[in-house]
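Hi support team,

I submitted a single chain yesterday and got back a structure, but I'm not sure I'm reading the token output correctly. Could someone confirm the output below corresponds to the sequence I sent? I've pasted both exactly as they appear in my results page.

Thanks,
R.
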Amino acid sequence: MSLLRCLQNDVQACIDLLLPAACPWCGRLLSADRTPADICPSCQQGMQSLPPSHCPCCAQPHATRTDTPHYCENCLRHPPHFSKVYAVGRHAGTLKEAIHRFKYRDNPGLNVSLGQLMIAVLTSNLGQFQPDMVIPVPLHPHRLRQRGYQQALELARPIAKYLQTPLEAHLLQRIKTTPPQQGQNAADRQRNLRKAFVAGRVLAGEQILLIDDVMTTAATARECAKTLTENGAGEIHVAVLGRA
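Hi R., thanks for writing in. Yes, this is the structure output for that exact sequence:
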């Protein structure tokens, strides 16, 4: 370990000893048994879970409540190249606010608390699926220069470390800029993203866990999974923070 890293660890240890942990989302002080990665009970209560009635493939909540799992119309008519989506919760409430701060307010350090939430969901739901690699949804270089960091990559780091799975940060690349996706319908989003991604090398049937922050229409995940499948990927699962 480098001298600089040792000094950083010592400084952080002193800070943790002298200052109580605070919620990374709202700044409220946490109890003594909490860590800086934990969020406070108020922020936890402000999160909205996915309803039991949602598509077992893309996790889209169904418009009407049903006790029988069934695929949404979009997955039935246009089956995606991924098999399953794991989501921490609805893209609403305190989770939506935390994602916005993480993504748009220059706060990449929120990846720790947000990543822990994703890890908890994956631990409970991955089952027999064992990914051979973790791949973040990439930003176009122009957008990356504007933002300064790639939010999906920052989320993927703690997940890959926890799963002890290789993190392939540059295998999937975005080569096409697209207009902002907010306010566009699913067809327009999919049209904008056509041929927006390329794979850096040919794969040999590896199982992939694809990481992104938010899924709205699933257009981005669909195009990423299509690109990876066409380049030899095996089964693909997707993990996101918020599902609209």
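A quick pointer for reading it: The two ends are 42 Å apart (CA to CA). Let us know if anything else looks off.

Best,
Support desk
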